[in-house]
């Protein structure tokens, strides 16, 4: 445990947890503005990076649309007291042991907020799936797997809770731009799934296709937990 905590304190940095920055930090990619995702992979047949960059890009596009819609100016980010309080709690309470570090990014502009939210979404969906869903031999054994919730947390203070506990009639109002952004994100995730399946069937990609090689499905959006299942972040599918 002490070794793990030491490694966390010395190595973990939130500003480098986004996929592009993480790949560069680990020496697996180099910055390259001419490439689609702004970097060049040093190992071309690297399923985690190749599939992950597709999902990272889709998440980033969704978040940027959302942020630019509600926070079109830097002042709106800077003077949103609830947003700034949330970010302060994230650093000083959620990561109190490294809160003093000088690498924490500022939250002053829409671009800062886009980067922060995209990184959070990446960590709790695709990255988590890729790192943990493959541990099927342990996680698949029900007695050692803690319960987990797959539905919305009930809000009993809401007058509509008893009539509609699952929130099935929840409406987004007139924010058509945001609704359209989520629709485009959903379509992009479906395209990503097709692309991952195409890659898994490509005999030239020897790290994910061939005799005795299991297809890389840990970042396949429609998959469930486990290497032999259809593997990944159901939580990002809309």
Automatic annotation (TrEMBL):
Residues 1-238 form the Lipoxygenase domain. One of its GO terms (biological process) is lipid oxidation. Signal peptide: none annotated. GO terms for molecular function: metal ion binding; oxidoreductase activity, acting on single donors with incorporation of molecular oxygen, incorporation of two atoms of oxygen. It comes from the Eukaryota. Keywords: Dioxygenase, Metal-binding, Oxidoreductase. This is Lipoxygenase domain-containing protein.
